[in-house]
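User: Fold this one for me? It's Ethanolamine-phosphate phospho-lyase.
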Amino acid sequence: MPPVTPDAPGEGTPRGTAAGKAGRWGSLARQALAGERESRGAPGSRATMCELYSKQDTLALRRKHIGPSCKVFFAADPIKIVRAQGQYMFDERGEQYLDCINNVAHVGHCHPEVVTAALKQMELLNTNSRFLHDNIVEYARRLSATLPETLSVCYFTNSGSEANDLALRLARQFRGHQDVITLDHAYHGHLSSLIEISPYKFRKGKDVKKEFVHVAPTPDTYRGKYREDHADPAGAYADEVKKIIEEAHNSGRKIAAFIAESMQSCGGQIIPPAGYFQKVAEYVHRAGGVFIADEVQVGFGRVGKHFWSFQMHGEDFVPDIVTMGKPMGNGHPMACVVTTKEIAEAFSSSGMEYFNTYGGNPVSSAIGLAVLNVIESEDLQGNATRVGDYLTELLNKQKAKHTLIGDIRGIGLFIGIDLVKDQQKRTPATDEAQHVIYKMKEKQVLLSADGPHRNVLKIKPPMCFTEEDAKFMVDQLDEILTVVEEAIGARSESVTSENTPCRTKVPHGHLKVY
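Assistant: Here's what I get for Ethanolamine-phosphate phospho-lyase.
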């Protein structure tokens, strides 16, 4: 991993003017952190101030006072993080981890411009949106400018869950319809209204699918019902939605909305085939429903060439409602629903005021503006394209080398590595994926695994992620996959050739899975 010093390879070397600015910021941040590491443990140092308890005491207090359903990363051996900067996180011992999973710290952990914007506004004023204030209207103006012209009315919230809940209310009020079409394995939030439309959640618990919820197949061309060899996978998957609409209408039900992430994250880093959303929108509109694009995890330039992931599908596709959240405040709780004037007026006609105590407050809006400024000034969309293309190239070389890799898919800095036991059968390598993420953690690279079979390695780092970071991550992955495949191969030979004396038997459990 590139060391935390101003002399780190590639840092401060411009790849285009804006990328150079990002590199120089990273260099300055590392320089400051290097000084902090040297002074670790000194009285009054930030490292000392960040830690109130030992790691074991922190874990014990968490187990005592935090609900057991609130999980931690790497539960078998959690990391205690005390500070972060850019694309790096640091534990209580000062050990550095390359963050490849934190799409919340969008422009980099603790970006100085974002921190300064928050501090300055917090020193001046923070209040609710019932008072006039320039920040909320300026942020709404700037945010709307990134979207198609028809999407111009904003409702500010504090989380993606709040945003998606409000989006459902808008959709249902618009035509008075109730039913919602969602995708299999989808996750849209933790509120009750969203668990109801999130198969990722309700199928794991004791809840059953509600009668007003209709689940369409995920448009997955690698592992789904219609694959890459199908003549028209987009049309075939869209026709599944059409069938759902027809069946609902035949039962006397009416569709309020179709909701989907523009790229499915928890469902396994799924990129819908070109033309799918256009066809679905056509069918949904014909049924009197609206199309909700959930950009909570994938928006704000993560795909590189477009600010919003739904824009990859072309100018002829415009959702009726867009929700956004996680990266919006770079770690500060911010989210938003953006919709058309027509839908907003229908929502207002109910006579019920919409009010959110903290949504769009002056501090949040100042932070949101700072994030937009950094994305633009440091050309983070360009960086997502350049580094994402480079990372995808490196990973595809690994795919040619490693039998465990079944598929590499993604755009920009949103990439999935689908691990398989058998490339032809595409059997999910669930245990191996869990083993890999723990071994990567030992090499101080943070990854997670998700998808229906928890076998897809998710890569969605802060947008300041560099080519050096990408190379380091892939080198560590290469080493780990090599060891795992050797163990699996030896174990397989042991099982299939048990009576062959020249082959070494590998005991069961040789590959430890956490």
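One thing worth pointing out: The chain is about 40% helix and 15% strand.
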